[in-house]
Amino acid sequence: MLFGAHVSIAGGLPNAPLNAAEIGCEVFQFFTRSPQGGWVPPCDKKIAEEFKTNCEKAEQKEWYVHTPYFINFASANKKIVYASIKVVREELERASMLGAKYIMTHLGSYKDSGKEIGFIRLADSLEKVLNGYVGKTKFLIEISAGAGEIIGDTFEEIAEIINHPKLKKYNLGVCYDTQHGFASGYDIRTPKAVEKTLDAFNQTIGLQKLKLSHCSDSLTELGSRRDRHAHLGEGLIGLAGFKNLLSAKKLPDINFILETESEKVKNDLKKLKNIRKSL
Description:
Blueprint: E1 3-6, H1 15-22, E2 27-30, H2 45-57, E3 62-66, H3 78-97, E4 102-105, H4 115-130, E5 138-142, H5 155-162, E6 173-177, H6 178-183, H7 191-204, E7 210-215, E8 217-218, E9 229-230, H8 238-246, E10 255-258, H9 262-278
Parallel strand pairs: 1-2, 1-10, 2-3, 3-4, 4-5, 5-6, 6-7, 7-10
Antiparallel strand pairs: 8-9
Helix pairs in contact: 1-2, 3-4, 8-9
């Protein structure tokens, strides 16, 4: 069980592992490009080698790539769907070149197409992203907070995607986000709540599919369907909730990535390490 955070690539991709080590990360997550779109930092063999050398120097055990925020595989706008397919495939290739273990993505929204047509577009788009991909980086779907008609806010919907006839062969995994899950109604505040949530995940998706967790407290209440992260112990999950989750016997051997504001993320990492010491 290793802990890390989402870190900046300011100054170039090879700086990410150095930035991670500076705040006490054992593993880390990063964007390889701006999450809002625009200029894409170069990533060639030389840059990838420098990046991996710095990961070794910084004693980072694993690293993960998050795709940009503008992805929407279910959009009624063909240009947005095409761009989403192109960018996520590029990110898979870049992540593999950089030696990332996982890449995770949000899937988009059914807002402008409706679920029935949107789901068909989603499955077709993911199949196009993954078809012919031979890299080592594994593809994860991240659970969403469920605002509006955002895709992937329930275990049932994620299972439906993973087990789709066009996608099942790709053996997709899941990135669980503690704040998103809480906002979608999955409680982890007590040992009993953790057990119930993990049992539900196992029965619906299968705990073998749980590969990574984003780790943030929640500014909004259970089932709020709002994406509002808080520093650990400063939200409605509370430090006890994270201790209950990390100590759960049913929890698979996964790592945790903080997605909290940078000014206190170092302190959040210390809190996680203190919990680990107490287990």
